[in-house]
Amino acid sequence: MSASFTSALQAAQAAAGTQHYPASTLYVVATPIGNLADITLRALHVLELADAVACEDTRHTHSMLRAYGVGKSGGQLIAVHQHNEAEAAEQVISRLQQGQRIAYVSDAGTPGVSDPGARLAAAVARAGLRVSPLPGASSVTALVSAAGAVAGEGASSGFAFIGFLPTKAQERQQAVAQLAQDPRTLVLLEAPHRIADLAQALAVLQDRPVTLGRELTKQFEDIATMPAADVPAWLAADPHRSKGEFALLLHPQAVQTDGLADAHRVLALLLAELPTKTAVKLAADITGAPRNALYDTALAWKRDAEQAGG
Q: Where is the Tetrapyrrole methylase domain (predicted)?
């Protein structure tokens, strides 16, 4: 047993051991994105308790479990990755139907977000079996929490997880053009060998702030915020800045109110004759105003009308 996590395993047993963990259940377990200490006590307990661990990479997961002092034999590890997820789900379901508890982990973070796991969870649910999430580390929420992106009201509130953009240059440029029309906080992911290309593509966003999170939770963690146009130069200034896994956050952009007056006038005219979605689409196409902003406005008008009518 790993000396470093002996007390953690004991604490996991004390804190989570008295809870109920039903059989025939798939436990979707979040694991650290870089710092092994970011495991939860409940995750440790379930990984020990599980009859088998389905995982994205058996070698990686075996190494992680060994570091925690969780003993699992090779036969207790089931490979479930993006290339075999549908077929491997059948094996997992068969085991669950026998009354086993199965934990699923990706290589890092919360499964089913950008890593495999969604198809497995869906297949288990379709089979009438239980799926139970164990929340934990995620590069997405980690970066959002540290970026200080102050969301506004309406269309710019909240955030959207975009994930990896297309790898081909033309498709990536088209994707960035679509992001430029979205005023919300947007979170992207990128691998080190493509970060320079992504930075060049995002530079067209000019003054829109971008927060880069590199090697989050690890020893050489780096978080920096700057205008999108400055990101390529920032990366080029130090070769170390292009190493490691990246999460990027596009800060919300303010909706230009001076151009919305005309868009609202057009929207009001269209709403008098057309369904809301059709009116919003046409108003956005005619005026160039953000469709999300116009839709929020239309809903607000509808609520006001209903309240006024009693």
A: 25-231
Taking the mean position of all CA atoms in its chain, how far away is CA 25?
24
CA-based nearest residue to 10, from 45, 36, 39, 49: 45
Q: What is the largest CA-CA distance in the chain?
A: 71
pTM over 0.85: no
Query: d(Cα 63, Cα 70) in Å, to the nearest integer?
Result: 10
Chain-wide mean pLDDT for the chain? 91
Q: What gap in Å lies between CA 286 and CA 269, rounded to an integer?
A: 12
End-to-end CA distance of the chain: 67
Q: Please name the amino acid found at residue 119.
A: R
Contact call for residues 124 and 26 (beta carbons, < 8 A): yes
State pLDDT tens for residues 61-101.
999 999 999 999 989 999 999 899 889 999 999 999 999 99
The answer to whether the beta carbons of residues 109 and 138 sit under 8 Å apart is yes
DSSP class of 128: T
252 neighbors 156 (Cβ within 8 angstroms): yes
Helix (H) or strand (E) holding 102: strand 101-105
12: which residues sit within 8 A by CB, 6+ positions away? 41, 42, 44, 45, 48
Q: Is the pLDDT of residue 152 over 70?
A: no
By the 8 A CB rule, do 152 and 252 touch? yes
User: 280 vs 153, 258, 277, 285, CA distance in Å?
Assistant: 19, 18, 5, 9
Distance of CA 164 to the CA centre of its chain: 10
